[in-house]
Design brief:
Chain lengths: ~110, ~210
């Protein structure tokens, strides 16, 4: 109940961002489906985005980054959309050529 | 009733959205069904948009909904549907890999949280946040101006004319915006090129 009566600070947001980041890293490390790995990347980017917005928020912190945080978050969102388009194209190409979406089967380039 | 009066509603909604975000992010990790993972990710990112709204970044929150939840995730769900073979819907991870991942993830999480709690300025709540929330102009004009002409938050005073009022070292985001635009164009052409339908050639061993 103590948590409910206190105002939110930047570190609250940072902890949520840390949870998203760690979930994304674990997702990238454990999923065998290539699309699952892609979802892990989205979670990592979103955790970083949450930190940018928290540091740029004047409501949470009086000497904040200001507009920088929000603009960086917007750039990250756009780049994540671009990255998802290319990664999905690669995954579909891999599926067409190998009839599989398992990342363990993507070992054609063995040295 | 005393308890109800003492509740900070901003904090209440923050906790609600952060629990949704973190809970469904964990559900993405622990689910092995890729269709369910896509659905959980949708809810998690939608709740993160709510957190953006609560931090005063309404435009970023709306963009999160429109681009991330409405665009990127729909693209991902199309990918899931196009590869939804029975063998690939549910792929189990080996127990040893789970142990390794739990070790790595737990260590990383402890490191991040400890680093967060070590800075006292980040732990102190902003005492003037009610005045800020009321006085701040909540529209996207400031973001548009920061991309194209001037930074509204770093002007010397609010009455100064915006033209040629960019302070040294506080440049606008025109060049990064241009780079991102061209990058997006290149990426979309590249994605279309990669994913185009090829003619099946039985004599071509490269495609076998």
């Amino acid at each position: 109940m103590d948590l409910l009566t206190q105002p939110v600070s930047v570190s609250h947001y940072l902890v949520v961002g840390a949870v998203l980041f760690v979930c994304g890293v674990v997702c990238m490390a454990t999923k065998r489906n290539a699309l699952g790995v892609l979802m892990g990347i989205e979670l990592v980017l979103n955790g970083a985005n949450l930190n940018f917005v928290a540091f740029g928020s004047r409501i949470l912190r009086s000497d904040s980054l200001g507009m920088d945080g929000q603009l960086m978050a917007l750039f990250v969102i756009v780049l994540a959309a671009a990255e998802a388009a290319v990664a999905l194209a690669i995954a579909l190409n891999f599926y067409n050529n190998h009839a599989s979406i398992d990342v363990d089967h993507a070992d054609d380039l063995k040295g | 009733m005393m308890l109800l009066a003492a509740i900070q509603w901003h904090t209440f909604f923050f906790l609600l959205f952060s629990l949704l975000t973190c809970g469904f992010a964990l559900a993405v990790v622990f689910s092995s069904n890729v269709v369910r993972m896509a659905f959980f990710l949708t809810i998690s990112l939608g709740a993160a948009a709510g957190l953006f709204f609560l931090a005063g970044a309404e435009f970023v929150g709306a963009m999160q909904f429109m681009i991330y939840v409405g665009g990127t995730l729909v693209l991902l769900i199309f990918g899931v549907m196009l590869t939804a073979h029975e063998r690939f819907i549910s792929m189990k991870t080996k127990a040893g890999e789970w142990v390794m991942a739990a070790f790595l993830g737990g260590g990383l999480f402890l490191l991040l949280v400890r680093a967060t709690l070590m800075v006292p300025q980040w732990n102190a709540p902003n005492l003037q946040r009610d005045q800020v929330a009321q006085s701040e102009v909540h529209d996207s004009a400031a973001i548009g101006a920061a991309v194209s002409a001037y930074r509204a938050d770093s002007l010397p005073s609010s009455s100064a004319p915006p033209a040629a009022a960019v302070p040294a070292g506080k440049s606008v985001y025109l060049l990064p915006f241009e780079i991102v635009s061209v990058h997006l164009l290149v990426v979309l052409i590249g994605a279309g090129y990669l994913a185009r339908a090829k003619k099946r050639n039985p004599g071509n061993a490269w495609q076998a």
